[in-house]
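WARN no homologs supplied; continuing
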Amino acid sequence: MGSLSLSRPIVRAAFCAFLALLPLGAAWNLVAAQYFPRLAIKIGPRLGGVTYETSVSLSWPEIRDGKFQKAIVSRVTEAMPVRPLLIRINNEIRFHLFGELTAPNVFRGSHGQLIEQTYLDDYCSRTEGKGARLAAVAIPKLQDIQNFYQARGAIFVYLVTPSKAAHLPEYFVDRLPCPSTQAARTQLVPDYVGALRRAGINVVDTASLIHSLKGAYPFELFPQGGVHWNDVGGAVAVSALVEQINRLAGHEIIPPFKFTYTMSQPAKGADRELADLLNVFFPPLGYQTPKVAYQPSVPCADSPARQLDVTMVGSSFGHLPSHIMVEANCLARLQFYYYGTLGRFGGEPYRELQRNLPDGDLNAWRDAKVMILEENESFMASDKVGYVDQLRAVVNRR
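OK structure emitted
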Protein backbone atom coordinates (compact mmCIF):
# COMPACT_ATOMS: atom_id res chain seq x y z
CA MET A 1 0.00 0.00 0.00
CA GLY A 2 2.83 2.33 0.92
CA SER A 3 4.73 1.67 -2.29
CA LEU A 4 1.62 2.28 -4.34
CA SER A 5 1.02 5.62 -2.68
CA LEU A 6 4.64 6.64 -3.37
CA SER A 7 4.39 5.67 -7.02
CA ARG A 8 1.44 7.92 -7.76
CA PRO A 9 3.27 11.22 -7.20
CA ILE A 10 6.16 9.93 -9.30
CA VAL A 11 3.85 9.02 -12.16
CA ARG A 12 2.05 12.35 -11.90
CA ALA A 13 5.33 14.23 -11.84
CA ALA A 14 6.63 12.33 -14.87
CA PHE A 15 3.41 13.01 -16.77
CA CYS A 16 3.52 16.71 -15.87
CA ALA A 17 7.14 16.89 -17.00
CA PHE A 18 6.19 15.25 -20.29
CA LEU A 19 3.40 17.79 -20.84
CA ALA A 20 5.76 20.64 -19.98
CA LEU A 21 8.33 19.41 -22.46
CA LEU A 22 5.85 19.18 -25.36
CA PRO A 23 5.83 22.95 -26.05
CA LEU A 24 9.62 22.96 -25.90
CA GLY A 25 9.75 20.08 -28.38
CA ALA A 26 7.36 21.88 -30.70
CA ALA A 27 9.42 25.06 -30.44
CA TRP A 28 12.58 23.13 -31.28
CA ASN A 29 10.92 21.49 -34.27
CA LEU A 30 9.81 24.88 -35.59
CA VAL A 31 13.44 25.96 -35.60
CA ALA A 32 14.75 22.60 -36.83
CA ALA A 33 12.34 22.62 -39.78
CA GLN A 34 14.16 25.68 -41.11
CA TYR A 35 17.77 24.94 -40.25
CA PHE A 36 18.25 21.35 -38.96
CA PRO A 37 15.44 19.18 -40.42
CA ARG A 38 17.23 15.93 -39.59
CA LEU A 39 17.33 16.89 -35.90
CA ALA A 40 13.57 17.32 -35.55
CA ILE A 41 12.03 15.35 -32.65
CA LYS A 42 9.26 12.96 -33.67
CA ILE A 43 7.65 10.35 -31.41
CA GLY A 44 6.36 7.30 -33.24
CA PRO A 45 7.02 5.83 -36.71
CA ARG A 46 7.52 8.29 -39.54
CA LEU A 47 4.30 9.11 -41.39
CA GLY A 48 3.90 8.05 -45.01
CA GLY A 49 3.01 10.56 -47.70
CA VAL A 50 4.05 14.12 -48.46
CA THR A 51 2.94 17.16 -46.47
CA TYR A 52 3.22 20.47 -48.28
CA GLU A 53 4.33 23.29 -46.02
CA THR A 54 1.80 26.10 -45.63
CA SER A 55 3.32 29.48 -46.40
CA VAL A 56 3.04 32.14 -43.66
CA SER A 57 2.47 35.66 -44.94
CA LEU A 58 1.92 38.45 -42.41
CA SER A 59 -0.37 40.94 -44.11
CA TRP A 60 -3.72 42.53 -43.38
CA PRO A 61 -5.58 40.66 -46.18
CA GLU A 62 -4.15 37.34 -44.91
CA ILE A 63 -5.17 38.16 -41.32
CA ARG A 64 -8.63 39.37 -42.37
CA ASP A 65 -9.59 36.17 -44.20
CA GLY A 66 -7.94 33.92 -41.61
CA LYS A 67 -5.18 32.50 -43.82
CA PHE A 68 -2.41 33.81 -41.58
CA GLN A 69 -3.96 32.28 -38.44
CA LYS A 70 -4.56 28.94 -40.19
CA ALA A 71 -0.97 28.85 -41.46
CA ILE A 72 0.37 29.44 -37.94
CA VAL A 73 -1.86 26.71 -36.49
CA SER A 74 -0.76 24.33 -39.27
CA ARG A 75 2.94 25.00 -38.62
CA VAL A 76 2.58 24.48 -34.85
CA THR A 77 0.53 21.32 -35.33
CA GLU A 78 3.10 19.87 -37.72
CA ALA A 79 5.84 20.66 -35.20
CA MET A 80 4.28 18.72 -32.31
CA PRO A 81 6.59 15.77 -31.50
CA VAL A 82 3.70 13.42 -30.63
CA ARG A 83 1.77 14.13 -33.84
CA PRO A 84 2.91 10.95 -35.71
CA LEU A 85 2.01 8.77 -32.73
CA LEU A 86 -1.43 10.33 -32.25
CA ILE A 87 -2.24 10.11 -35.96
CA ARG A 88 -1.36 6.43 -36.09
CA ILE A 89 -3.39 5.64 -32.97
CA ASN A 90 -6.42 7.42 -34.46
CA ASN A 91 -5.99 5.74 -37.86
CA GLU A 92 -5.49 2.30 -36.30
CA ILE A 93 -8.76 2.53 -34.38
CA ARG A 94 -10.75 3.80 -37.36
CA PHE A 95 -9.24 1.31 -39.83
CA HIS A 96 -9.29 -1.93 -37.86
CA LEU A 97 -12.47 -1.35 -35.86
CA PHE A 98 -14.61 0.50 -38.40
CA GLY A 99 -12.92 -0.14 -41.76
CA GLU A 100 -12.42 3.58 -42.45
CA LEU A 101 -9.56 4.91 -44.57
CA THR A 102 -8.12 8.23 -43.43
CA ALA A 103 -5.61 8.59 -46.27
CA PRO A 104 -6.83 11.24 -48.73
CA ASN A 105 -7.39 10.06 -52.30
CA VAL A 106 -7.00 6.35 -51.41
CA PHE A 107 -9.91 4.07 -52.34
CA ARG A 108 -10.37 0.48 -51.18
CA GLY A 109 -11.95 -2.04 -53.52
CA SER A 110 -12.83 -5.68 -52.97
CA HIS A 111 -10.29 -8.14 -51.55
CA GLY A 112 -8.37 -5.28 -49.95
CA GLN A 113 -7.23 -3.79 -53.27
CA LEU A 114 -6.12 -0.16 -52.89
CA ILE A 115 -5.97 2.50 -55.57
CA GLU A 116 -5.72 6.27 -55.88
CA GLN A 117 -9.06 7.92 -56.55
CA THR A 118 -7.71 9.94 -59.50
CA TYR A 119 -7.19 6.76 -61.55
CA LEU A 120 -10.77 5.68 -60.93
CA ASP A 121 -12.05 9.14 -61.80
CA ASP A 122 -10.32 8.90 -65.18
CA TYR A 123 -11.47 5.34 -65.86
CA CYS A 124 -15.10 6.05 -65.04
CA SER A 125 -15.24 9.29 -67.06
CA ARG A 126 -14.01 7.84 -70.37
CA THR A 127 -16.27 8.49 -73.32
CA GLU A 128 -16.41 6.91 -76.75
CA GLY A 129 -14.22 8.72 -79.24
CA LYS A 130 -12.05 10.25 -76.50
CA GLY A 131 -8.94 8.45 -77.72
CA ALA A 132 -9.12 10.14 -81.10
CA ARG A 133 -9.75 13.53 -79.51
CA LEU A 134 -6.76 13.16 -77.20
CA ALA A 135 -4.58 12.05 -80.10
CA ALA A 136 -5.48 15.17 -82.07
CA VAL A 137 -4.12 17.25 -79.20
CA ALA A 138 -1.00 15.13 -78.67
CA ILE A 139 0.14 14.52 -82.25
CA PRO A 140 1.43 18.05 -83.08
CA LYS A 141 3.38 18.16 -79.83
CA LEU A 142 4.89 14.71 -80.27
CA GLN A 143 5.74 15.40 -83.91
CA ASP A 144 7.68 18.53 -82.90
CA ILE A 145 9.62 16.56 -80.30
CA GLN A 146 10.27 13.54 -82.51
CA ASN A 147 11.37 15.67 -85.47
CA PHE A 148 13.88 17.46 -83.25
CA TYR A 149 15.59 14.28 -82.10
CA GLN A 150 15.48 12.60 -85.52
CA ALA A 151 17.14 15.67 -87.08
CA ARG A 152 19.99 15.28 -84.60
CA GLY A 153 20.42 11.56 -85.28
CA ALA A 154 18.89 10.67 -81.91
CA ILE A 155 16.00 8.34 -81.03
CA PHE A 156 12.64 9.43 -79.62
CA VAL A 157 10.13 7.00 -78.10
CA TYR A 158 6.73 7.79 -76.63
CA LEU A 159 5.93 5.33 -73.84
CA VAL A 160 2.32 4.70 -72.74
CA THR A 161 2.07 3.03 -69.32
CA PRO A 162 -0.92 1.17 -67.81
CA SER A 163 -3.42 2.16 -65.14
CA LYS A 164 -4.38 -0.19 -62.31
CA ALA A 165 -8.00 0.86 -62.73
CA ALA A 166 -7.97 -0.26 -66.37
CA HIS A 167 -6.13 -3.50 -65.54
CA LEU A 168 -8.24 -4.58 -62.54
CA PRO A 169 -11.60 -2.81 -62.89
CA GLU A 170 -13.50 -5.73 -61.37
CA TYR A 171 -12.17 -4.81 -57.92
CA PHE A 172 -13.48 -1.25 -58.02
CA VAL A 173 -16.23 -0.34 -60.50
CA ASP A 174 -19.05 -1.95 -58.51
CA ARG A 175 -18.16 0.13 -55.43
CA LEU A 176 -18.66 3.63 -56.84
CA PRO A 177 -20.66 5.36 -59.58
CA CYS A 178 -18.99 4.54 -62.89
CA PRO A 179 -21.08 5.95 -65.75
CA SER A 180 -18.65 5.24 -68.61
CA THR A 181 -19.42 2.38 -70.98
CA GLN A 182 -17.31 -0.75 -71.31
CA ALA A 183 -16.50 0.17 -74.91
CA ALA A 184 -15.32 3.64 -73.92
CA ARG A 185 -13.10 2.21 -71.21
CA THR A 186 -11.42 -0.46 -73.30
CA GLN A 187 -11.08 1.46 -76.58
CA LEU A 188 -9.43 4.60 -75.24
CA VAL A 189 -5.82 3.38 -75.44
CA PRO A 190 -6.11 1.42 -78.73
CA ASP A 191 -7.80 4.38 -80.42
CA TYR A 192 -5.22 6.84 -79.06
CA VAL A 193 -2.18 4.72 -79.85
CA GLY A 194 -3.53 3.80 -83.29
CA ALA A 195 -3.94 7.45 -84.25
CA LEU A 196 -0.41 8.26 -83.06
CA ARG A 197 1.10 5.40 -85.02
CA ARG A 198 -0.72 6.44 -88.18
CA ALA A 199 0.82 9.89 -87.68
CA GLY A 200 4.28 8.30 -87.56
CA ILE A 201 4.93 8.64 -83.81
CA ASN A 202 7.24 6.00 -82.32
CA VAL A 203 4.95 4.54 -79.65
CA VAL A 204 5.62 1.74 -77.18
CA ASP A 205 2.20 0.79 -75.82
CA THR A 206 2.98 -1.01 -72.57
CA ALA A 207 -0.58 -0.32 -71.36
CA SER A 208 -2.08 -2.70 -73.92
CA LEU A 209 0.84 -5.10 -73.43
CA ILE A 210 0.29 -5.37 -69.68
CA HIS A 211 -3.48 -5.65 -70.06
CA SER A 212 -3.01 -8.48 -72.56
CA LEU A 213 -1.06 -10.44 -69.92
CA LYS A 214 -3.88 -10.48 -67.40
CA GLY A 215 -4.09 -14.04 -66.10
CA ALA A 216 -0.75 -15.05 -67.63
CA TYR A 217 0.94 -15.15 -64.21
CA PRO A 218 -0.20 -16.64 -60.90
CA PHE A 219 -0.44 -13.10 -59.53
CA GLU A 220 -1.73 -9.74 -60.67
CA LEU A 221 0.72 -7.34 -62.32
CA PHE A 222 -0.31 -4.63 -59.87
CA PRO A 223 0.17 -5.22 -56.13
CA GLN A 224 -2.76 -5.17 -53.72
CA GLY A 225 -1.33 -2.33 -51.67
CA GLY A 226 0.20 -0.27 -54.48
CA VAL A 227 -0.92 1.70 -57.52
CA HIS A 228 2.08 1.06 -59.81
CA TRP A 229 3.03 -2.10 -61.72
CA ASN A 230 5.06 -4.70 -59.86
CA ASP A 231 8.58 -5.88 -60.77
CA VAL A 232 7.40 -8.42 -63.35
CA GLY A 233 5.18 -5.86 -65.06
CA GLY A 234 8.08 -3.43 -65.15
CA ALA A 235 10.48 -6.04 -66.54
CA VAL A 236 8.08 -7.02 -69.32
CA ALA A 237 7.50 -3.37 -70.22
CA VAL A 238 11.22 -2.52 -70.28
CA SER A 239 11.92 -5.51 -72.53
CA ALA A 240 9.40 -4.17 -75.05
CA LEU A 241 10.82 -0.66 -74.76
CA VAL A 242 14.42 -1.80 -75.33
CA GLU A 243 13.37 -3.92 -78.30
CA GLN A 244 11.75 -0.88 -79.93
CA ILE A 245 14.76 1.37 -79.28
CA ASN A 246 17.12 -1.18 -80.83
CA ARG A 247 14.82 -1.55 -83.81
CA LEU A 248 14.79 2.21 -84.36
CA ALA A 249 18.58 2.32 -84.04
CA GLY A 250 18.97 -0.42 -86.66
CA HIS A 251 21.20 -2.47 -84.35
CA GLU A 252 21.53 -3.36 -80.69
CA ILE A 253 22.60 -0.28 -78.73
CA ILE A 254 21.00 -1.43 -75.46
CA PRO A 255 21.65 -5.02 -74.33
CA PRO A 256 18.48 -6.93 -73.43
CA PHE A 257 18.08 -9.11 -70.36
CA LYS A 258 16.27 -12.19 -69.15
CA PHE A 259 14.66 -12.39 -65.74
CA THR A 260 13.33 -14.81 -63.16
CA TYR A 261 11.16 -14.11 -60.16
CA THR A 262 10.42 -15.47 -56.71
CA MET A 263 7.45 -14.67 -54.51
CA SER A 264 8.06 -12.54 -51.44
CA GLN A 265 6.12 -11.49 -48.34
CA PRO A 266 5.63 -8.99 -46.78
CA ALA A 267 5.51 -6.48 -49.59
CA LYS A 268 8.27 -3.89 -49.82
CA GLY A 269 8.87 -0.58 -51.57
CA ALA A 270 6.34 0.47 -54.20
CA ASP A 271 4.39 -2.76 -53.68
CA ARG A 272 3.11 -1.31 -50.40
CA GLU A 273 3.08 2.43 -51.10
CA LEU A 274 -0.67 2.91 -50.64
CA ALA A 275 -0.78 0.61 -47.62
CA ASP A 276 1.88 2.82 -46.04
CA LEU A 277 -0.22 5.92 -46.75
CA LEU A 278 -2.86 4.55 -44.36
CA ASN A 279 -0.42 5.41 -41.54
CA VAL A 280 -1.50 2.60 -39.21
CA PHE A 281 0.70 0.50 -36.96
CA PHE A 282 -0.26 -2.73 -38.71
CA PRO A 283 -0.84 -2.05 -42.43
CA PRO A 284 -2.55 -4.76 -44.51
CA LEU A 285 0.48 -6.54 -46.01
CA GLY A 286 -0.68 -10.15 -46.03
CA TYR A 287 -0.13 -10.61 -49.76
CA GLN A 288 2.77 -11.88 -51.84
CA THR A 289 4.56 -9.96 -54.56
CA PRO A 290 7.13 -11.11 -57.15
CA LYS A 291 10.76 -10.05 -56.78
CA VAL A 292 12.78 -10.16 -59.98
CA ALA A 293 16.38 -11.23 -60.61
CA TYR A 294 17.89 -9.97 -63.87
CA GLN A 295 20.38 -11.71 -66.14
CA PRO A 296 21.88 -9.10 -68.54
CA SER A 297 22.88 -10.50 -71.93
CA VAL A 298 26.38 -9.01 -71.56
CA PRO A 299 28.50 -8.02 -68.54
CA CYS A 300 27.54 -4.40 -67.87
CA ALA A 301 31.11 -3.47 -66.97
CA ASP A 302 32.13 -4.11 -70.59
CA SER A 303 29.02 -2.77 -72.34
CA PRO A 304 29.20 0.40 -74.50
CA ALA A 305 25.65 1.10 -73.29
CA ARG A 306 27.20 2.46 -70.08
CA GLN A 307 28.21 5.56 -72.06
CA LEU A 308 24.86 6.05 -73.82
CA ASP A 309 23.06 9.27 -72.91
CA VAL A 310 19.47 8.20 -72.24
CA THR A 311 16.88 10.56 -70.80
CA MET A 312 13.37 9.71 -69.63
CA VAL A 313 10.81 12.38 -68.81
CA GLY A 314 7.64 11.15 -67.21
CA SER A 315 5.38 10.40 -64.29
CA SER A 316 5.81 8.15 -61.27
CA PHE A 317 5.45 5.17 -63.61
CA GLY A 318 8.88 6.03 -65.00
CA HIS A 319 10.72 5.16 -61.80
CA LEU A 320 10.67 1.37 -62.09
CA PRO A 321 11.63 1.26 -65.81
CA SER A 322 14.45 3.73 -65.16
CA HIS A 323 15.72 1.69 -62.24
CA ILE A 324 15.58 -1.53 -64.29
CA MET A 325 17.36 0.02 -67.27
CA VAL A 326 20.21 1.25 -65.09
CA GLU A 327 20.57 -2.11 -63.36
CA ALA A 328 19.75 -4.66 -66.05
CA ASN A 329 20.33 -2.83 -69.35
CA CYS A 330 23.67 -1.30 -68.36
CA LEU A 331 22.45 2.30 -68.86
CA ALA A 332 24.63 3.84 -66.18
CA ARG A 333 24.11 7.39 -67.55
CA LEU A 334 20.32 7.24 -67.76
CA GLN A 335 18.61 10.24 -66.18
CA PHE A 336 14.94 10.22 -65.20
CA TYR A 337 13.22 13.59 -64.83
CA TYR A 338 10.22 13.08 -62.58
CA TYR A 339 7.33 15.21 -63.84
CA GLY A 340 9.86 17.32 -65.68
CA THR A 341 11.27 19.42 -62.86
CA LEU A 342 10.25 17.83 -59.55
CA GLY A 343 13.32 15.60 -59.36
CA ARG A 344 16.19 14.08 -61.35
CA PHE A 345 17.00 10.42 -60.70
CA GLY A 346 19.71 8.03 -61.84
CA GLY A 347 23.11 6.75 -60.82
CA GLU A 348 24.34 3.47 -59.43
CA PRO A 349 22.61 2.78 -57.14
CA TYR A 350 19.53 4.44 -58.59
CA ARG A 351 18.55 7.40 -56.42
CA GLU A 352 17.39 11.02 -56.40
CA LEU A 353 20.19 13.26 -57.67
CA GLN A 354 18.50 16.66 -57.68
CA ARG A 355 15.23 18.19 -56.54
CA ASN A 356 13.17 21.07 -57.95
CA LEU A 357 15.22 21.70 -61.08
CA PRO A 358 15.60 25.22 -62.46
CA ASP A 359 14.50 25.71 -66.03
CA GLY A 360 18.07 26.08 -67.28
CA ASP A 361 18.89 22.52 -66.24
CA LEU A 362 16.36 21.20 -68.75
CA ASN A 363 18.66 22.13 -71.65
CA ALA A 364 20.37 18.78 -71.04
CA TRP A 365 17.30 17.15 -72.58
CA ARG A 366 18.36 18.44 -76.00
CA ASP A 367 21.57 16.39 -75.91
CA ALA A 368 19.99 12.99 -75.24
CA LYS A 369 20.86 10.24 -77.71
CA VAL A 370 17.71 8.41 -76.64
CA MET A 371 14.73 10.40 -75.34
CA ILE A 372 11.87 8.46 -73.73
CA LEU A 373 8.70 10.43 -73.01
CA GLU A 374 6.38 8.51 -70.67
CA GLU A 375 2.70 9.14 -70.01
CA ASN A 376 0.24 7.01 -68.11
CA GLU A 377 -2.97 6.08 -69.89
CA SER A 378 -4.96 7.95 -67.24
CA PHE A 379 -3.32 11.28 -68.08
CA MET A 380 -2.50 11.09 -71.80
CA ALA A 381 -2.46 14.48 -73.53
CA SER A 382 -3.49 16.17 -70.29
CA ASP A 383 -2.66 19.86 -70.00
CA LYS A 384 -2.72 19.51 -66.19
CA VAL A 385 0.54 17.53 -66.02
CA GLY A 386 2.68 19.81 -68.15
CA TYR A 387 5.94 17.94 -68.73
CA VAL A 388 5.10 17.14 -72.37
CA ASP A 389 4.70 20.86 -73.02
CA GLN A 390 7.95 21.46 -71.10
CA LEU A 391 9.84 19.06 -73.35
CA ARG A 392 8.34 20.59 -76.46
CA ALA A 393 9.32 24.07 -75.30
CA VAL A 394 12.88 22.94 -74.60
CA VAL A 395 13.42 21.38 -78.01
CA ASN A 396 11.97 24.45 -79.72
CA ARG A 397 14.37 26.83 -78.02
CA ARG A 398 16.65 28.83 -80.28
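The two ends are 87 Å apart (CA to CA).
OK
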